[in-house]
Design brief:
about 230 residues; alpha/beta; Rossmann fold; 7-stranded mixed sheet; two-stranded antiparallel sheet; about 35% helix; disordered C terminus
């Protein structure tokens, strides 16, 4: 099974995939795309058998989507987040208003219409506006996908911010974020990682033999058998 993991960061979503694939008796090859070279280096150390590419994930999807059986994409979320909007529109004069990054919706529409042979998941935060395309809401995240996701993904609760947040994020994600020596804030990196239990549950759904589901109100309500 060939898998494309876009905007891979440190692979929070991918952490338990080997466990799931081994239990199902499936061989997988993961290609991870990450623009930050320091994150890419650490991802490679964490998952030495994956192919890691330092490149723009959005363009890589367009150029290579036909090569994969399953695609996971987690486009950048800050311009959609409620926290950033509240800061920019209310009390934080250091946070400037910005346009929402439409890369998110470009990829959802593109995968729906062009990626006919495999399964996909696009993950992002719950935005400050009504989502432009219907999604499956689970916990603090939205998932656009052509597979049915269970009502509960096994996500664990984590209180953002507070004393020693980075240390608690290290424990929560089972990863030492202090290894990162790049330009991004490590608390931000830790907050943005998908809970590995959610990633595990979703990958279990990907491996099941069931109809692919089209969930978006902008599209026809279709059911396709994989």
């Amino acid at each position: 099974m060939k898998i494309l993991n876009l905007y891979a960061c440190l692979g929070g979503n991918r952490y338990k995939w080997d466990e799931v694939a081994n239990a199902a008796g499936i061989e997988m090859q993961v290609t991870a795309v990450e623009l930050d070279p320091e994150l890419a280096r650490l991802y490679q150390e964490r998952f030495p058998n994956d192919i890691v590419i330092v490149e723009d994930a959005h363009q890589y999807l367009l150029d290579h989507y036909k090569e994969f059986d399953f695609i996971w994409s987690s486009p950048p979320c800050p311009t959609h987040s409620r926290a950033r909007y509240w800061n920019a529109s209310n009390y934080d004069t250091t946070t400037e208003p910005v346009y929402p990054d439409m890369v998110l919706y470009q990829e959802i529409i593109f995968l729906h219409h062009y990626f006919k042979t495999g399964k996909y998941v696009v993950e992002n935060v719950i935005p400050y506006y009504e989502p432009l395309i219907d999604a499956q809401k689970r916990g603090r995240h939205l998932y656009w996908s052509n597979i049915n996701l269970p009502a509960e993904l096994g996500e664990r609760k984590f209180k953002m911010s507070g004393k020693e947040e980075v240390r608690r994020l290290c424990e929560f994600h089972d990863y030492d974020f202090y290894q990162y020596k790049g330009e991004q804030r490590i608390d931000k990196i830790g907050r943005n990682l998908v809970d590995y239990e959610a990633g595990k549950t979703i990958f279990e759904c990907v491996l099941r033999k069931e109809p692919k589901r089209i969930i978006n109100s902008l599209f026809d309500n279709e059911y396709l058998t994989l």
